[in-house]
Amino acid sequence: xxxxxxxxAFQSRxxxxxxxxxxxxxxxxxxxxxxxxxxxLFPLGHAGEIFPWTPPQPVPYTQPWFLGVANLRGGLYxxxxxxxxxxxxxxxxxxxxxxxxxxxxxxxxxxxxxxxALLVDRLAGLRGAEAxxxxxxxxxxxxxxxxxxxxxxxxxRWQEINLQALSQQPEFLSIGA
Length: 177
Fold this sequence. Notes:
Number of helices: 5
Mean pLDDT: 86
Radius of gyration: 18 Å
InterPro entries: CheW-like_dom_sf (IPR036061), CheW-lke_dom (IPR002545)
Number of strands: 11
Organism: Variovorax paradoxus
Shape: globular
Helix content: 10-25%
Order of helices and strands: HEEEEEHHEEEEEEHH
Number of domains: 1
Pfam family, one: CheW
Largest sheet: 6 strands, mixed
CATH superfamily: CheA-289, Domain 4
Low-confidence stretches: none
Oligomer: single chain
CATH class: Mainly Beta
Structural class: alpha+beta
Protein name: Twitching motility protein PilI
GO biological process, one term: chemotaxis
């Protein structure tokens, strides 16, 4: 009985927060995350569920950026270390337990049909276009999955990642070493 009451209270709070979000007029477009030295923006329509750090089961003979597979809420997901993939260099730093507590696994939206979660070091919240003062299109040599580079009021640069384009890239899908 207590669980049912707690669920009703949770649903009521969630409904009121959703209604408040609709009436503020501020539309979030991206989930902002930090991974390694990079700051990234994931389009909300491409990002899926966010999970706490779950150590993946290593898979032999894979790329250094592919950490293995993890059971996330009953589904089997490949875990990609975002900063290592984006930089093209393996991440040799051993994360402390405190750092891993802030780490999150951001699953790709199930509509993208790729059971994959990206390891990020920290969630930085939601961002809308109004949070940025400037934007630059990707360079001619940039990978197809990189979107615009945005600058916020503090001068921080945020790289948009098109998760749909990323999920279709052969180098992302080819995890074999």
